[in-house]
Amino acid sequence: MSIDNIISQATAEAVKALYGVDFEASKIVPQATKKEFEGNLTVVVFPFLKASKKAPEATAQEIGEYLVSHCDAVRSFNVIKGFLNIVIEPKFWNSVLRHIAETADYGFKTATDDSELVMIEYSSPNTNKPLHLGHVRNNLLGYSLSLIMKANGYKVVKTNIVNDRGIHICKSMLAWEKWGNGITPEKAGKKGDHLIGDFYVMFDKHYKAELKALREQGMTEEEAEKASPLMQEAREMLKKWEAGDESVRSVWRMMNEWVYAGFDETYKRLGVDFDKIYYESNTYLEGKEKVLEGLEKGIMYRREDGSVWADLTADGLDHKLLLRSDGTSVYMTQDIGTAKLRYQDYPIDKMIYVVGNEQNYHFQVLSLLLDKLGFKWGKDLVHFSYGMVELPEGKMKSREGTVVDADDLMDEMIANARQISADMGKLNDIPEAEAAEIARIIGLGALKYFILKVDPRKNMTFNPKESIDFNGNTGPFIQYTYARIQSLLRKTAEAGMEAAISDVEPNEKEISLIQRLADFPGVVADAGRSYSPAQIANYVYDLVKEYNQFYHDYSIMKEENEAVRAFRIKLSAVVGDVIRRAAGLLGIEVPNRM
Question: The whole model's pTM is what?
Answer without folding.
Answer: 0.91
